[in-house]
């Protein structure tokens, strides 16, 4: 029995779903601390350049493949009649988002815990210590990881249109409202000017090889590339919707959100005299403390701001985790003939188990992150540029992109620039 493939209701819905996948912990949690560690605005400039020259072309490769075949990753490779090697690589891209999902939902779980704490008791002076003692305990993080995965499963279970599309259509505008409100609050704090300057004035003397690599890697991670998410979502796009507009729209929303998140985090960090380069735990350890301590006389305001902040993180993480889960679900439904319910259950159970290990062991957590960010995403991205740039007929790619005279430039970037840069990043990362 062949059921009709579901599609997003409109081009706007497709952009919102992809932007939802792109906007996530990477924007709120990773971007501000990377800016902090790498010297501010100079990093942002390099980030924007790598978005245009590397990440958007890869995005287009994935989208062209998915929209053309109307299938998920492995289905696409089969439909295009590619060899065994490609099929193995495609199988990897089904596994990668599940590995990401397992540790991503652990961090998502922390945010759930902070949100609940904000609502129930608020953050006192000991907010920083709370993070440390919470993440090193056993049951709390496990419970929150489970809750986060169940929320993800509930949305994906609803299907492409009434689950994923509907959730993103409500969440994305809500996320922007929340983060703009928080940034406004943060910028108006006494002493925040230093943080704004930090984000806006480029200091190119701080640019080293490592900074450039981090910026490229971050733009890649932030657009959810290399693991078949964009490919799978594009396979739910209708023929008439523009791929180029979707790619550009997703990148613009993603960048805007990351920048506003930077303005929500950095001024507050500076206003309270905290070191901006304090790494991945920046938002968890410092922000509740910042929000709790700053508005002193107005505890309700700081309480509301911290709740809004953690609510934004939970929702942003959910719109991404949903897209990770959908890759595997699409595979099981399309290629293995499973029902959606069963497919969701199978994948959620396996990622839950791996996630529990990540939650209990920092080493397993980092190993998963390292494996995916440094290897699997790279191989996946290379595979997609290879398929769209070299294996598919040029006329088909041109037809899918439908971008008139710009095609020559875009196609050149997809075929040469993007894969060459991926190899450069990969090799340099291995060496240094
Ligand atoms: N882009 C997401 C974020 O910024 C994270 C992410 C990386 C992702 N790879 C992905 C999401 C693959 C979905 C699928 O948080």
Short description, anyone?
80% of the residues lie in helices and 0% in strands. The protein is mainly alpha-helical and 432 residues long.
Tell me the series of helices and strands, N- to C-terminal. HHHHHHHHHHHHHHHHHH
End-to-end C-alpha gap = 52 Å
Task: Give the C-alpha Rg.
Answer: 21 Å
Distinct compounds present: tryptophan
By DSSP, the count of extended strands is: 0
Instruction: Please state the structural category.
Output: mainly alpha
Q: Determine the fraction of residues in helical runs and give it as a percent range.
A: over 70%
Primary descriptors:
432 residues; 18 helices; binds tryptophan
Describe it for me?
- The structure is a single chain.
- By secondary structure, the chain is mostly helical.
- Helix content is 80%, strand content 0%.
- Helix 6 runs antiparallel to helix 13.
- The structure holds tryptophan.
């Amino acid at each position: 029995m062949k059921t009709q493939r579901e599609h997003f209701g409109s081009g706007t819905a497709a952009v919102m779903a992809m932007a939802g996948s792109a906007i996530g912990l990477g924007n709120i949690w990773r971007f501000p601390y990377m800016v902090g560690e790498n010297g501010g605005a100079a990093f942002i400039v390099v980030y924007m350049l790598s978005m245009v020259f590397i990440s958007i072309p890869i995005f287009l490769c994935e989208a062209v493949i998915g929209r053309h075949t109307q299938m998920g990753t492995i289905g696409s490779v089969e439909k295009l009649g590619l060899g065994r090697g490609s099929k193995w690589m495609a199988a990897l891209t089904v596994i990668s988002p599940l590995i990401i999902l397992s540790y991503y939902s652990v961090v998502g779980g922390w945010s759930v815990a902070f949100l609940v704490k904000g609502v129930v008791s608020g953050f006192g002076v000991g907010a920083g210590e709370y993070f440390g003692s919470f993440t090193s305990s056993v049951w709390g993080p496990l419970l929150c990881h489970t809750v986060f995965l169940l929320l993800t499963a509930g949305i994906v279970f609803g299907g492409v249109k009434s689950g994923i599309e509907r959730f993103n259509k409500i969440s994305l505008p809500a996320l922007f409202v929340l983060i703009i409100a928080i940034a406004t609050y943060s910028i108006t704090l006494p002493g925040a000017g230093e943080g704004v300057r930090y984000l806006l004035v480029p200091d190119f003397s701080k640019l080293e090889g490592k900074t450039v690599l981090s910026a490229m890697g971050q733009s890649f991670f932030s657009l959810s590339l290399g693991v078949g998410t964009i490919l799978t979502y594009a396979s739910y796009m209708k023929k008439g919707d523009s791929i180029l507009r979707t790619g550009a729209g997703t990148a613009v929303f993603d960048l805007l959100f990351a920048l506003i998140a930077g303005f929500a985090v950095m001024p507050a960090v500076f206003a309270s005299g905290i070191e901006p380069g304090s790494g991945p735990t920046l938002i968890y350890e410092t922000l509740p403390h910042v929000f709790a301590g700053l508005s002193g006389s107005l505890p309700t305001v700081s309480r509301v701001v911290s709740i809004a902040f953690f609510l934004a993180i939970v929702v942003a993480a959910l719109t991404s985790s949903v897209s990770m889960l959908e890759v595997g679900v699409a595979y099981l439904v399309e290629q293995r003939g499973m029902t959606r319910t069963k497919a969701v259950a199978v994948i959620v159970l396996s990622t839950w188990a791996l996630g529990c290990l990540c939650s209990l062991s920092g080493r397993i957590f980092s190993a998963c992150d390292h494996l995916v960010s440094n290897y699997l995403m790279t191989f996946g991205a290379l595979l997609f540029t290879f398929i769209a740039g070299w294996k598919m007929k040029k006329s088909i790619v041109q037809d899918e992109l439908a971008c008139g005279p710009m095609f020559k430039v875009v196609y050149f970037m997809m075929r040469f620039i993007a894969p060459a840069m991926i190899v450069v990043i990969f090799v340099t990362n291995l060496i240094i």
